[in-house]
Amino acid sequence: MSTAVLIDGKAYAEAIRARLAISVGELHDYHHIVPGLAVVLVGQDPASRIYVRNKHKQAEEAGIRSLVHTLPAEVSEDELSTLIEGLNGDREIHGILVQLPLPPHIDTQWIIDCIDPAKDVDGFHPFNVGHLFTRGTGLIPCTPLGCLKLLRRQHPDMSGLRATMIGRSNIVGKPMAQLLVQENCTVTIAHSKTRDLARECRQADIVVAAVGRAEMVRGDWIKPGATVIDVGINRISLEDGKSRLVGDVCFDEAVAVAGAITPVPGGVGPMTVAMLLHNTVLACCRQTHVEPCLHAVGKRMSSGTRCFACNAHERSSC
Ligand code: NAD
Question: Which of 94, 178, 185, 228 fits a disulfide with 163 by CB distance 3.0 to 4.6 angstroms?
Fold first, then answer.
């Protein structure tokens, strides 16, 4: 029985973070600039606290100045927007991330709209969403960008491949589908109302699952040799009272059919954080008019220069 190649997002993310740390060092040494990231956490959601702690730690390790603003769950929209306005005007802060979900009394989209698009390192502001669809120079949401980088390693040229995106959220599904279109894939967006999801998956060379339902995608939904990117993070209870994380794809079944697959954990998750740091350095370069990261917007570096976000030379891509 053949076994799929494991796409090691953990190792790739570590390599990206190491390159970013070099770039951050160069920004400091040559330009006296330290990229600054502000993370806003509202309430006590345990998963959000873990995510924020992780982002803060990895940012600091890369040399990025990270500040976490923790607010009580009952904070008002006005108080939250006032904090964001202050961060928008703070020249030492280049990236702002509001950890989602926010408490139900807060209008999430209105809060996202308050963030300066140049500092919107999550890429959720309508300005950046619009840029994504017009192939501009905005900031791209971290999870889809991380998935794209994993896919590019597997498929340097995705032209003409069929891709099925399961899920249509603003955070993952929709931007990911758009990135796949830009790679010249023929893209199907499947969702909770899709009639025959298994059939939509079986015809795909690339399946990206972002649903939030444990092991929903079965092995016999996968076309032999297809590449499977599993975005889902689901905690399931085990018989011995313990629990473990699984994706939206039944890994044990899919690994026997797919050509390549991401594990959960250790696949997309670490890439999401690495892309947050990437976006923060990119935003910093743009705001300080240093060396804009041309790689990140799909352009080549000028001769002899290095990309400040990825530290790569001209002609390579980050
Ligand atoms: P969401 O709840 O906003 O969207 C889920 C999508 O799945 C919806 O578009 C819905 O139409 C679709 N869906 C629901 N049931 C379905 C079904 N039975 N068949 C087909 N489609 C169905 O979720 P999200 O924010 O996009 O996140 C999805 C998953 O990805 C979650 O498990 C989340 O924890 C995970 N996630 C992981 C990362 C990461 O860094 N690894 C980042 C973001 C989200």
Answer: 185
